[in-house]
Amino acid sequence: MKTSTFQPDQSHLAYSVGITLDRFIKLKQSDFPFASGELSQLLRDIALAAKIVNRETNRAGLANIGGAFGQTNVQGEEQQKLDVIANIRFMRALSKGGEVCAIVSEEEDAVVDLQNNSGKYVVAIDPLDGSSNIDVNISIGTIFSIYRRKSPIGSPILLEDIMQPGSEQVAAGYVLYGSSTMLVYTTGFGVNGFTYENSLGEFFLSHPDIQAPKSGTIYSINEGLQLEWEKGIADFVQSCKEMKMQSRYIGSLVADFHRNLLKGGIYLYPSTLKNPSGKLRLMYEANALAFIIEQAGGKASEGKQRILDIQPKNLHQRTPLIIGSVELVEQVERMMNPMETLVTS
Ligand SMILES: O=P(O)(O)OC[C@H]1O[C@](O)(COP(=O)(O)O)[C@@H](O)[C@@H]1O
Ligand SMILES: [Mg+2]
Ligand SMILES: [Mg+2]
Question: Per UniProt, where does Mg(2+) 1 bind (predicted)?
Fold first, then answer.
């Protein structure tokens, strides 16, 4: 019997570049034997809101949605219009989806209880990261963490559902609104990046199984605060200069993190006189990026302790953040804790 030589396209079976986010989420669901599809749907809801925020950021200059909103958030920071717009868009998508029972947002003073006791998940979100760069057309982002609630489904949410350490995250990611728009996330089975194809309105897998280089030549820190650094940080930055490493600082955490994740390097926002606990927020900035960098083989620390082991005490608490290639982060830790290094060496 004559058979045709047609080879069926098997590519959908492998996580090959070009697969849509939707399809990838579906295929990856098999990583969770007891998956019921809710986390998958929640990731889709976040991707949908990201598409809308992407559209808003692209036309920020045209549609008079740049500039200040005229209010300050719980941290006393002036809210930008896009902070508020992004917050509304993500709130809507997360509440409409039905999977979420509570949200912690940079732009909301208190926990947003969605009065949806059947919701399984809690989301912590920085709707718009890098707000100071909105009006000057520099890359900005969104950062999100997803936790499974601890209290029984159907019952009201409890504090224990919200105040979970980063090690309890079931998924985390960020969206980068840059020269291209990307969504990068993990569910604890590696890190994958998707690029948004505007004309098709779809995210496509472009960076499968991202691995952070063990070391790198890039260091990212706001050197304007140099006089406020503790000795270990100052020594490390000095050693970077002596080794002629490249200083790169965009001032948008997501963009600085993303570059260093792909190229190898380290981002540091240490404690300063103005912010003795650092500037960045544990629950909706540091935890998500720490989960991603660890899944990609890197490291995240506050100088001594692993970020993901920090037990949160309040919603908007800050933490020093040292994150990136494992060898560089460990070098900073050694320089910040010379005595311990002496004891252990
Ligand atoms: O201007 P600084 O002190 O260097 O701080 C920049 C950091 O602050 C942030 O803008 C804080 O995030 P938000 O914009 O979400 O408030 C980070 O993205 C960035 O890394
Ligand atoms: Mg931020
Ligand atoms: Mg923000």
Answer: 106, 126, 128
User: Nearest-CA neighbor of 90 among 115, 107, 70?
Assistant: 107
Q: What is the DSSP letter of 281?
A: B
CA 130 to ligand 1 centroid distance, Å: 5
Contact in structure between 62 and 81 (CB atoms under 8 Å): no
Q: Name the residue with the closest Cα to ligand 1, atom 5.
A: 251
Q: Which run of H or E residues covers position 183?
A: strand 181-186
For residues 176 and 238, membership in a common domain is answered with no
Interstrand relation of 265-269 and 218-220 (parallel, antiparallel or unpaired): parallel
Query: What residues pair up with 279 in beta bridges, in sequence order?
Result: none
Answer whether residue 44 is part of any domain: yes
pLDDT at residue number 177: 98
130 is in an annotated binding site: yes
227 and 122 in one domain? no
Q: How many structural domains compose the chain?
A: 2
* Residue 87 C-alpha from the chain's centroid: 15
In a domain, 299, yes or no: yes
Q: Residues 166, 302, 329, 224: is their CA dihedral positive or negative?
A: positive
Q: Nearest Cα to 18, choosing from 145, 203, 247? A: 203
Distance CA 340, CA 167 (A): 25
Whether 166 and 291 map to the same domain: the answer is no
The last residue of one of the domains, among 207, 237, 257, is: 207
- By residue range, what is the domain housing residue 273? 218-344
Query: What ipTM was reported for this prediction?
Result: 0.98
Q: Quick one: pLDDT at residue 137?
A: 92
Please report whether residue 16 resides in a domain: no
| CATH number of the CATH domain containing 306 | 3.40.190.80
Q: Which of 184, 207, 230 is the last residue of a domain?
A: 207
Per the domain annotation, does 7 fall within a domain? no
Pocket-forming residues, ligand 1, beta carbon under 6 Å: 77, 106, 126, 129-132, 222, 251-253, 279
Q: What is the DSSP letter of 109?
A: S
**Overall pTM > 0.90:** yes
Q: How far apart are alpha carbons 45 and 92 in whole angstroms?
A: 9
pLDDT confidence of residue 274: 85
* Amino acid letter, 343: V
